[in-house]
Design goal:
heterotrimer, A mainly alpha (298), B alpha/beta (281), C mainly alpha (307), A: mainly alpha, MetI-like fold, C: 307 residues, transport (chain A), BP-dependent_transpt_permease (chain A), MetI-like (chain A), membrane (chain A), transmembrane (chain A)
């Protein structure tokens, strides 16, 4: 009882330090992020390389099928539309806007969502009651209704689109953040900090937020997928991205009129959205199970 | 290595007790009542039921009881970290019901708490060093008396651990870090809430020895919360036995242990390992 | 016991009512505070007198509080205002279109349940196998695909290339097949994932082992014991998804030119028929909150602990 065990002193033989779970989760996160990074960089870099077919109309080559179908040529690998514009070139440039909207759309939802969730979860009381009622009310309005109400008044533009994405995304994020914050704030180190004289803002910004970062990143990732799906639906209906701007969603809108003659216009952007969102969802799920503060014992 | 430990024994590092005013008790709890309301059913549960106790400077007091007896609620209320409830609490002569927010924050470092779960008591995103650095920015004057390495030495940890994160520490190491963080503030009262029950049996004894040494060298008062009577007996002068929110028996440690008056206390004593041997004595 | 039940039901009703009121206020505010609709309706070049006249016609010249209470009174009496474009009451137009949407939602949801639940049970009973992985991947894919695009591709395949089914319009059961299939994709995926999760949880319970030990057949154990206990979350999500489909079928209805509520909403936006849009939003919110209430009632019937 009097001596100090040698084991405790030797930092290299530190008993059995709890092992961090999720080495497998980390590798799967890597393999999921890789294609996402390649695609995101690709759509921005490809147009600069000069490898893409020229943009612009070519009325001599309208509605050409993709190269791998009979009648297609490698001059237009993914075919052309009714004005002879190259689908691949459109696809790549539209992809830029889609990815930007996905990222910004997630940020505008995650930002206020995290902030309100932390406030509600940390301070409880009337702050919590007000924010919780707002969350419930927002979740009681299906997103398309919110979108319709705003767009009917403001018309369609990028700022309106981001407003819609923020309004439809913040509530889910706030709800998850709120419960995660409630779990963290009952951890003993928060009481320890208070006993050391730390102010409440300091605890929130220096300790609660960093511990939420993993959850927030995971939620943000999932929100990127949601934003891309919402954007595609709104643009498809002519309520999101409208010409002269082009996104994968608005390509689907122009492809809708051509379904019987040139299905490939709509096929490739739709497929791209599906795969992109699938990857993002898998990544978000992997991150969420990895970082869930309620699952992490320590 | 051995030299560092020798040098870091608390005796040297922490022997700067500031003159405690002998007449003001460190903590007075007067007729405390704390109730919890179940949000779902709306039922009220009285966790602490008219409890009074007093801790003088340098004194070591234990609150003993089974889990759910209200010990932790009492400790949290007494340190102004949990719901305050009815009755009065005076920390170093300041009544918590009258004290202003700013004053309370200035008073807080005088009372430090060591919790049951050492890993939960450390921010998982902070290394030991950056955690200490934060405490130093929070209380610059109070904490300037000792360096990081020397502080770790005083709780018998090697300075190499400074750059570790909590998940890289064993339970015993993490609890020592928590004790070091408490010591850094040079508190007049240390509240230890089941400080050993989250640890392996082999490490428990070491941590208790450390607490005893700290008490001897710093002159801080100790409020020990425990369900383990053996722990209390080796460390405390006065013991209060709690049962269902009430204090059922109080007195000097030896008296309560040798001649218990309350049935519940007797039950507790009988449940102790080696109880038969003790009662025969 | 009884008093606490009344208390709980009461507080639940109050919170539902509060969220409904806030949702309705939100719809109102989104409409009023996001700008002067007359500019959008008439175009930026319209003379000020004309805009003033329209503002008067819409009641926008009244104080905001008066407008708000008029709006709430209208909802209470079932009067959702007049359409600018069709010169009809919005309520009757919604009533005209609702059957089409209901038909589509019922068919889509039926399909989603019939496929999604067995898919989820399959995955849960063969947890970790190839079956499980395939079913889970299909389900996740269903939640990642833009459903209207899936519908477009169905049209290309079955209407344009094969010529088996009509591409649009409504009328015969044949017309319903593709839209219903399209509608079912998202809820099917959601139901399958949820069924898998709650089934594998239920199958891990000790009473399943004890049922097996009593010599009950596997099918009986899975369906009568595990599924019965996993049913509540599934039922919940079916009802809530129905609410989302009822108001969220806009894109699918557009793909198939289906004359339902979604198409009406789209027309209203295209013609800047702002009162009609608001009426549809309000209707959607009412339906959604009502279905939330249904979920609560279902919970209290199925789960004896809640009662």
């Amino acid at each position: 009882m009097t001596g100090v065990s040698q084991l405790e002193l030797d930092p290299t033989a530190a008993g059995t330090p709890p092992r961090r779970p999720g080495r497998r989760a980390r590798t799967s996160v890597f393999w999921l992020s890789l294609p996402l990074a390649v695609v995101s960089v690709g759509v921005f870099v490809l147009p600069l390389t000069g490898l893409l077919p020229a943009a612009g109309q070519d009325l001599a080559a309208t509605r050409q099928p993709p190269a791998f179908l009979p009648g297609g040529t490698w001059a237009h690998p993914l075919g052309t539309d009714k004005l002879g514009q190259d689908v691949l070139t459109q696809f790549v440039t539209a992809g830029r806007l889609t990815i930007v909207i996905g990222l910004v759309g997630a940020l505008v939802a995650i930002g206020p969502g995290t902030l309100l969730g932390v406030l509600a979860g940390y301070f409880r009381g009337w702050v919590d009651r007000v924010i919780s009622v707002l969350i419930d009310a927002q979740l009681a309005l299906p997103f398309i209704l919110v979108a319709l109400a705003i767009i009917a008044n403001r018309g369609s533009s990028l700022p309106v689109l981001f407003l819609v994405l923020a309004l439809t995304g913040w509530a889910v994020c706030a709800r998850v953040t709120r419960s995660a914050t409630m779990a963290i704030r009952e951890r003993q180190f928060v009481f320890g900090l208070r006993a050391a004289g730390a102010s409440e803002p300091r605890i929130v910004f220096r300790h609660i937020l960093p511990n939420l970062a993993g959850t927030t990143v995971a939620l943000g990732t999932l929100q990127v997928g949601t934003a891309i799906l919402v954007e595609s639906a709104l643009s498809f209906l002519g309520l999101g991205v409208v010409p002269p701007m082009n996104s994968w969603g608005s390509m689907l809108a122009s492809g809708q009129d051509e379904l019987s003659q040139a299905w490939w216009i709509a096929f490739f952007p739709g497929l791209a959205i599906t795969l992109l969102v699938l990857l993002v969802n898998l990544l978000g799920d992997a991150l969420l199970t990895h970082h869930d503060p309620r699952k992490a014992r320590r | 290595m051995t030299e560092a430990v020798q040098k870091g024994v608390p005796g040297e590092a922490a022997r700067r007790p500031r003159a405690p005013e002998p007449e003001t008790p460190v903590l007075v709890v007067d007729d405390l009542v704390v109730e919890h309301r179940d949000r779902g059913t709306g039922q009220v549960f009285r966790a602490v039921d008219h409890v009074s106790l007093r801790i003088d400077a340098g004194e070591s007091v234990a609150v003993v009881g089974e889990s759910g007896s209200g010990k932790t609620t009492l400790a949290m209320a007494a340190t102004a970290l949990g719901p305050r409830g009815g009755g009065d609490i005076r920390l170093l002569g300041h009544s918590l019901s009258e004290i202003s927010r700013t004053r309370l924050r200035r008073l807080r470092p005088e009372v430090q708490v060591v919790f049951q779960d050492p890993h939960g008591s450390l921010d998982p995103r902070q290394s030991v060093r950056s955690g200490l650095r934060e405490l130093r920015t929070l209380q610059p004057e109070r904490t300037s008396w000792i360096g990081d390495a020397e502080l770790l030495g005083s709780v018998r940890l090697a300075p190499e651990l400074l750059d570790r994160y909590p998940h890289q520490l064993s339970g015993g190491q993490a609890q020592r870090v928590c004790i070091a963080r408490a010591l850094l503030m040079r508190p007049r009262l240390i509240v230890a809430d089941e400080p050993t029950s989250g640890l392996d049996v082999s490490v428990q004894a070491d941590v208790l020895a450390l607490l005893r040494q700290i008490r001897a060298t710093t002159g801080a008062a100790l409020l020990m919360i425990s369900h383990d009577l053996a722990v209390v007996r080796s460390l405390c002068d006065v013991v209060h036995v709690m049962y269902r929110g009430r204090v059922v028996e109080s007195g000097p440690c030896e008296q309560v242990f040798v001649t218990p008056e309350n049935d519940y206390t007797r039950e507790l004593l009988a449940a102790m390992p080696g109880a038969r041997w003790r009662s025969r004595r | 016991m009884k008093a606490s039940t009344v208390r709980r039901v009461g507080s639940r009703l109050a919170s539902l009512f509060a969220s409904l009121l806030i949702a309705l206020s939100l719809a109102f505010l989104l409409g009023r505070l996001s700008g002067d609709p007359t500019a959008t309706i008439l175009g930026p070049l319209a003379p000020p007198e004309q805009r003033e006249a329209l503002r008067h016609e819409l009641g926008l010249d009244l104080p905001l509080v008066v407008q708000y209470f008029d709006y709430l009174r209208g909802i209470l009496t079932g009067d959702l205002g007049q359409s600018l474009q069709f010169y009809q009451s919005n309520t009757s137009m919604i009533a005209d279109r609702l059957p089409y949407t209901l038909q589509l939602v019922a068919a889509g949801m039926g399909l989603a349940v019939c496929v999604g639940v067995p898919l989820g049970v399959l995955a849960a009973t063969r947890e970790g196998t190839w079956w499980d992985r395939a079913a889970s991947t299909v389900a996740l894919l269903g939640q990642s695909v833009p459903v209207f695009w899936f519908g477009m591709m169905l049209v290309v395949l079955f209407a344009v290339k094969l010529g088996w089914l009509p591409a649009g319009q409504s009328g015969t059961p044949k017309h319903l097949i593709l839209p219903a299939l399209t509608m079912s994709v998202y809820p099917m995926a959601h139901i399958a994932r949820l069924t898998r999760a709650s089934m594998s949880e239920a199958l891990a319970e000790p009473y399943i082992d004890s049922a097996r030990a009593r010599g009950l057949g596997n099918r009986r154990v899975v369906w009568r014991h595990a599924f019965a206990n996993a049913m509540m979350p599934i039922l919940t999500i079916v009802v809530l998804q129905t609410g989302i489909l009822l108001s969220g079928a806009v894109a699918v209805e557009y793909v198939y030119s289906w004359p339902g509520l979604g198409q009406l909403a789209l027309q209203a936006i295209q013609f800047r028929d702002f009162p009609l849009v608001q009426a549809i939003v309000v209707f959607g919110a009412l339906v959604f909150v009502l279905l939330n209430l249904v979920v609560d009632v279902l919970h209290s019937i199925v789960d004896p602990r809640v009662r």
